[in-house]
Amino acid sequence: MRSRVRDAFREPRVWLMCLIYFxxxxxxxxxxxxMPSFVESTGxxxxxxxxxxxxxxxxxxxxxMNPFGRxxxxxxxxxxxxxxxxxxxxxxxxxAAVRNGSTALSLTALSVAAAGVLTCAPLFWSLPTAFLGGTxxxxxxxxxxxxxxxxGFVSPYMIGAIKDATGSASIPMYVLxxxxxxxxxxxxxxxxxxxxx
Length: 197
Known about the structure:
Elements: H1 2-10, H2 12-40, H3 47-75, H4 79-92, H5 95-98, H6 103-124, H7 128-131, H8 134-148, H9 151-166, H10 170-187, H11 192-195
Helix pairs in contact: 1-8, 2-3, 2-6, 2-8, 2-9, 2-10, 3-6, 4-6, 4-10, 9-10
């Protein structure tokens, strides 16, 4: 039993899943921590108005999750159903989309970002569970979850540190967009015959 658990640490696909999940969690944690600041940067004033408008992107995510999940199950296709939301998140986090002087366009961009990155969360877990089984599954999933969730600390801290160091809200957005693109690219390296079940 111990050797089987140890094998999970030696499985390259487990570490690939760690990378993918880390990239997606980077975007997921940026939203709740920084959404009010993103909305305020569009020119909205007042805590109530900022709070109400900050909820709009999360409603968009609620609408997007169900059709993506149902489509992935119906078509038995996992990779592109994960890549597309990830790229949606990258487009939505684009500084050009968010800092354009229009609150409506900015909220639209943030809604696309939220719909993308939050849809990645439930769809991701179909990848590692496709090839992990038995005792290795428990260890492998624990490794993936632990490493991936380190982004829960890294993402908000990184955004704040970059904003403080550069005085720019755009640079952290570029980093988030790049991270999501990297996660999407990593998903495409998985074997479709293994994960598309």
